[in-house]
Amino acid sequence: MTVIQNNLTEKNKQYASTFTKGDLALPPAKKYAVVTCMDARIDPAAAYGIDLGDAHVIRNAGGNAKDALRSLIISEQLLGTKEILLIKHTGCGMLTFKNEDAHTVVQKQLGDAAVKELGGLDFQPFPDLEQGVRDDVAFLNNSAAIPDDVAVSGWVYEVETGKVRAVN
């Protein structure tokens, strides 16, 4: 086992030894979903006040709505959520490159087979944080796959301060 795998098993033993919430219901108790970035500096439960069983937390590079759509449909249509909080953050890596840059790196480091497998994949970087939030909120609000009665709001989490702010 690797060091990381050993850490997983040891920390899980500690966690499981006092675990008492195995009877939580499958649907999220507070009927909402959070789309946020996979950035390791973000602890969604602590930063956004989410207790175990409260909400679905969907994480991907950039807190991207298009990438999260499949999970959001499952969350709403099969598990009853009625609200989406889309939360991007300051200092996001998705602000630092363009699609062409990512494709060039893949070509250089992984070769032609990887480029072919990507098939022109849009990495969905964004040059402006607040506009990225607005664009993703608009995408969700305009999506036929997101019902009109689902509330969608956009936020920025500041990694420097731990604060969130609404984006209109």
Summarize the structure.
This protein has a domain of 92 residues: Carbonic anhydrase (Beta-carbonic Anhydrase, Chain A), CATH 3.40.1050. 40% of the residues lie in helices and 18% in strands. Strands 2-1-3-4-5 form a five-stranded mixed sheet.
Structure description:
- This protein has helices at residues 3-17, 44-48, 65-78, 99-110, 112-118, 129-142, and strands at residues 32-37, 55-60, 83-89, 151-157, 164-167.
- By secondary structure, the protein is an alpha/beta fold.
- A hairpin with a 6-residue loop joins strand 4 (151-157) and strand 5.
- Helix 4 packs antiparallel against helix 5 (112-118).
- The longest helix has 15 residues, at 3-17.
- The chain starts with a helix and ends with a strand.
- Zn(2+) binds at residues 37, 39, 89, 92.
- This is Carbonic anhydrase.
- GO terms for molecular function: carbonate dehydratase activity; zinc ion binding.
- Belongs to the beta-class carbonic anhydrase family.
